[in-house]
């Protein structure tokens, strides 16, 4: 039999289901420094940390418990903590989760919280289990060499509120980038809003990121995308004179601060709240966009929300449906792919029957913006993420000003 050379592409996640998005209580973690004896310490006293319990089983084994902010919740356990030892030693550290949750993210290690490397495959072991008829990783035990230098262990590179703030400050040095706040989170954190461009708001673009706190790869793509729109190039300059781009780089600042698996401080998956708008984060963004388009004010021509999942995938709107610039999204994906040799985009149009509760359904069905959920794989090489983000922005600008 002839075999088809093309690998079968991932089919993506199941269609979204409507859920109640009213605020519920969440469990806050105790933050502090944990003295494990013999001069061994762990800490979750920093932004983005998650470490819910720790036990030193014996000389060499430490078991860590990672629990979610509330449940039910998607299985994307975020963890981040620091550890050190007064004298050099080897420790085995076991990451465990509640009964019905498995492990997802491969540990990243750092000595400064800035540069990260993935743990090497010889340094950890996993146990498997069957969950909802699928084999998943139950727990992971890693071998760590400890010393006085603080070792950071995290599910993904740590990009927290402070990092986002620093990035915004760099962008603000451009005269055509302006920062305000679109509203406040549950805990009163300002949700930053960037305006890029010198146009009259007749033609606008919307960019959203980090509704889901652990989705750092999506954030990295968003950064590359936005930096390209801000660059002092001829193309970007022409684009900025015609279109203003509005960016919400950190839609869930409380969730990122608390090291949440997925939800906001109200215990809600924000990307299921774009119809009910029960949460302050979603309603701030929704109100802003409605305000900008009221009456015969401007239009949003394109809207993109950056996320991460198991593999790169684009969730699009049914291509037969027409928004403010029909055909833009398929053309953008096609043009991007042509610039990236060997890259075969995985595109999954959402059915128009699907519940309209996500950001992209709001962007398209309520705002008319050609909309895209831009998903990056958890383990997609970081240099490729950057390149893809840059190319996407370049192609988008070319298509929009042609
Ligand atoms: Zn997501």
Please explain how this structure is put together.
This protein is 23% helix and 29% strand. It is built from 8 helices and 19 strands. Strands 12-13-15-14-16-19-17-18 form an 8-stranded mixed sheet, with helices on both faces. A hairpin with a 4-residue loop joins strand 1 and strand 2. The protein starts with 32 loop residues before the first strand and ends with a helix. The protein binds zinc ion. The site of zinc ion has 3 residues, from loops. Zinc ion (ZN) binds next to loops.
Classify the secondary structure makeup into a structural class: alpha+beta
Reading the helices and strands in chain order gives EEEEEEEEEEEHEEEHHEHHEEHEHEH
What is the count of distinct domains?
2
User: What is the CA-atom radius of gyration, in angstroms?
Assistant: 22 Å
- Sheet-strand content, in percent, reads 25-35%
Number of strands: 19
Please write out the topology:
Blueprint: E1 33-35, E2 40-43, E3 53-56, E4 61-65, E5 80-85, E6 89-96, E7 108-110, E8 117-118, E9 124-131, E10 134-146, E11 151-154, H1 161-171, E12 177-184, E13 190-196, E14 203-209, H2 216-230, H3 234-242, E15 244-248, H4 253-257, H5 280-293, E16 299-309, E17 313-317, H6 328-339, E18 347-350, H7 359-366, E19 370-377, H8 382-401
Parallel strand pairs: 4-6, 14-15, 14-16, 16-19, 17-18
Antiparallel strand pairs: 1-2, 2-5, 3-4, 5-11, 6-10, 7-8, 7-11, 9-10, 12-13, 13-15, 17-19
The protein binds zinc ion (ZN).
Zinc ion binds at residues 212, 215, 307.
